């Protein structure tokens, strides 16, 4: 053995792991060392490659290249069964629980202890009791999952993961669905596990959690690890910077805004998700003509829902949204079509899911949402020539390449897809523009082009509401910035007062008094 | 015993006979659907099973060989369904339709080629089919008023497949709820990811489920042509596979409620046959067509949430991909 | 195994469906062989029976007409990603609509009035029978497949009830209506052509055939040339984006199913108004289900649907000829062919996709290498 005995082998060591899905490189040369018996955090934005990495660790995906060692031994995992036999357990972000079965049945699944359930049941009940004693994880074995609160369901997931004596536990975004109280209980359990020698890998985008319970933290961005820190040596602001930072700095010169009248006003807005979780609470702000109002925050803190409410795509329960003086309340809602008819344009966060129909050609996408306009035909009919002409003009005005209206949307690069969406939404001279992640997955050249377009629109008097996970983008484009955390607003800053540190602190959930 | 009571007893007796293929087919459907594979090809498998059972019984003089071959043929069809839906992640409804059409075409074509009787098999003799089993003490109990008739008509005097079907219901329930296989089967139709992440193969589990479906369909088919009938007739399944599917939905994919649905649907059919052309006081002529359509109407109402609530296995119809 | 390279578009549109069709036919040929007959002779007999004997083309096109309508019934809904397997019941109800109008109106009105009204009624009744499952899917969350299956059986029960009851021909015991008056009968094409002094053999081919061709054209216009067609395709391809675009997704689904049902209902113009001249039991006899095979083979495109319908028309008509020529195989073999086509062109549609893509990729590499060396 070459290894120094005083320095025990790390629980996990990854060396140069790469994984691609088609053209998407989800993990690039990821190297990671997790010391045994520690709680190690992995932070990063949505899509930074954290979940892919964990699924590789759990044998669910196979890496394209790279090396993996568990407790000092080189391993190659071909299935989750391999991972389980190596003592790796995983708690998935989306619970792998069968909701119409009991806790006991869920825990037994995969290790029933024989062809008949009866024999394994007793053994599993004993395990449940032991885990309850050791870690304080009490659960009612006969309760049906669907009847349990989310926190208890997660506890069942943890029990499933460690029941066979797992020494390494991976948790993927474990607190995303928990109440603060439930999250505290979870952390107690994790600490108890750590005391018993279990190594915990915690994946999250919540910085306060990292600070609260981890020993070390690795930051991922765009499929790469961009930094390792000992938790005691870092700060939420530094981590936030690492997470959202971008190497290429903005080079757009922004003239002073000339804000006019208020065109968009949100007051006291609250909204719950279809699963009953509070996703927005007490949101109030306004956007004036000729200004960019930016919303900063780590993804998943209510920004998506806020945009959807304003665009008419999501119902809300409390408060009101006033668009161009027209007030929308839960009782007097408007459809997306009605809102678009008011010259309010919407560039959705996810162009693949919402903004485009990938199997349609470019000209079919160029009229999405505007397909009823008299410009593109008369009566019930669409005039294909008019649509093609329109699309060709959009493509040349907005530098969409290749400028072929008949090309299927899927076959454009991400940047050109986005330019097509932006072209469509800005071509109507909107009075209000709702923009989500305008440059996500877009190459550097296109980013600058898109930023110039947004600012030109602002200068023409449009009120722009901008959501972006890229802090630089928010700072570079916005005249005022609101920070969101956990579905609440943490404060509104004038752009002159906003710097990365201040915003990072607020994004991490530390509120500041709102400036009027 | 009054005449009405006796008529009612005979209707119940007929109900059991009519419901038997429904019960076997519905149990078959439970296995496939609980594993997450929609099976609208119960109908085709039933037809194929009926044809093969009668053909083999007729050619070999052995009804048991007929049953075994019927089961084998249905398992083959089930494996084709599995190959399309599990291995190639094809559309489960399309695959089921294809199997129904194949069964229609194959049974008639091969039937004509073999027997030259327009798609029928020759009528089966006594050794080539299942005969009713008379139980002990029928004569003795006859003297007991009421119970004697019930014992003779309803309990005794059915063929072995009727009893087998009734035994298969608790057997299915036990398999589903008390065994490792059943636990995994129920899980794979709800959250296949959970099964996969527990280190169990989703593919192999689902294949085993569709094989069981084939097995039960084979029994149901054999019943149609060698027990209830005496030979195969073109299209003799006549929508029973779809009624069984309706019963599976109606019984919420659980064996005992599904049994009740089968008995209810069987009763409607038996009663409508008995009431054909009969005038009922106050109502007029018995609405037999309405009674025959009730299983379908009730299923539509249930699915639309107008009565009760239907909760299909949540992963049903979705091909599993990691 | 490494993931297969993407299949080129031309291969996906032409080569793959052709391979699937060929495999289906080869398997059927093997079954014919196993039954002791020569499949090539059988094909020759069928081709003669479908196209060459006098009047046979008329019969082939008459069957083709049915298949076009039921194929369209599946295709329209397919563009909204809805699987309509209720063509059978929708066509059945269409027959009721056409029959009611013909029975009631024909004795007192001329043909030019009766036939258009009867056609509309066929479409309307079919549309209603498609619209209800569409509504239940879009607004109540019922599974369209199950509901349309159930509606087939409900339609069947309704028709038995009516044909053996209120609509049964007085003084008769068989379950069908009285015959329509002459002005309720769709003109036959051979009568019209003979009147124009062309000499054409008699066949059941009637004015429904041009109507079917018009329906194909109408389908093409609806799906690719109108705003509502755009909405149907958008809902089918990406319902979330459709919602974002302000499209009323549930309403579009209901509309698509209604149009589908109307197409199926129009099948009755051929069978009921054109040939039977009365409403009879089970006149749909599986055409509705065959429509699924047609739509799958025809890739939900009017040209594809036309040729698939022609193929099936030829199979039905040519298959009838088998009965005379062979001992062991009959026209029922067509059902088998239909099943194989649905299996290989539908459920296993992509079985050969990855191998084909690899083969093409290898060929391309090889030809590029050859060019490099040259």
Describe the structure.
The complex is a heterotrimer of chains A (516), B (322) and C (374). Chain A contains 17 helices and 20 strands. Chain A is an alpha/beta fold. In chain A, the strands form four sheets. A six-stranded mixed sheet of chain A has the order 6-7-8-3-9-10, sandwiched between helices. In chain A, strands 16-17-18-13-19-20 form a six-stranded mixed sheet, sandwiched between helices. Chain A has a four-stranded antiparallel sheet with strand order 2-1-4-5, with helices on one face. In chain A, β11 and β12 (278-288) form a beta hairpin. The longest helix of chain A has 19 residues, at 117-135. Chain B has a two-stranded antiparallel ribbon. The model of chain B has no long low-confidence stretch (mean pLDDT 90). The model of chain C has no long low-confidence stretch (mean pLDDT 91). Chain C is mainly alpha-helical and 374 residues long. Helices cover 73% and strands 0% of the residues of chain C. Classes of the chains: A alpha/beta (516), B mainly alpha (322), C mainly alpha (374). Chains in contact: A-B, A-C, B-C. The interface between B and C is large, with 49 and 47 residues.
Task: Write a short abstract of this structure.
Chain A is α/β, with parallel strands linked by helices. Chain A has 17 helices and 20 strands.
Helix content of chain B: 55-70%
Tally of DSSP β-strands of chain A: 20
- Overall form of chain B: globular
Query: Low-confidence parts of chain B, pLDDT < 50 over ≥5 residues?
Result: none
Question: How many DSSP helices of chain B?
Answer: 13
The greatest interface between two protein chains, and residues involved on each side, is:
B-C, 49 and 47 residues
Question: Topology, pairings included?
Answer:
The complex is a heterotrimer of chains A (516), B (322) and C (374).
Chain A: E1 12-21, E2 24-34, E3 39-44, H1 50-57, E4 65-70, E5 73-75, H2 80-85, E6 88-91, H3 103-108, H4 117-135, H5 150-162, E7 168-172, H6 180-195, E8 199-204, H7 207-213, E9 216-221, E10 224-230, H8 236-244, E11 262-272, E12 278-288, E13 292-296, H9 303-310, E14 318-323, E15 326-328, H10 336-341, E16 344-347, H11 351-355, H12 362-366, H13 384-397, H14 414-426, E17 432-436, H15 444-459, E18 463-467, H16 471-477, E19 480-485, E20 488-494, H17 500-507
Parallel strand pairs in A: 3-8, 3-9, 6-7, 7-8, 13-18, 13-19, 16-17, 17-18
Antiparallel strand pairs in A: 1-2, 1-4, 4-5, 9-10, 11-12, 11-14, 14-15, 19-20
Chain B: H1 3-34, H2 42-60, H3 63-87, H4 92-115, H5 138-142, H6 147-155, H7 160-178, H8 180-190, H9 192-197, H10 202-228, H11 240-250, H12 255-275, E1 279-280, E2 284-285, H13 288-303
Antiparallel strand pairs in B: 1-2
Helix pairs in contact in B: 1-6, 1-7, 1-10, 1-11, 1-12, 2-3, 2-4, 2-10, 2-11, 3-4, 3-10, 7-8, 8-10, 11-12, 11-13, 12-13
Chain C: H1 9-34, H2 39-52, H3 56-79, H4 87-105, H5 111-140, H6 144-163, H7 189-195, H8 208-225, H9 227-237, H10 239-244, H11 249-276, H12 287-297, H13 302-325, H14 333-347, H15 353-373
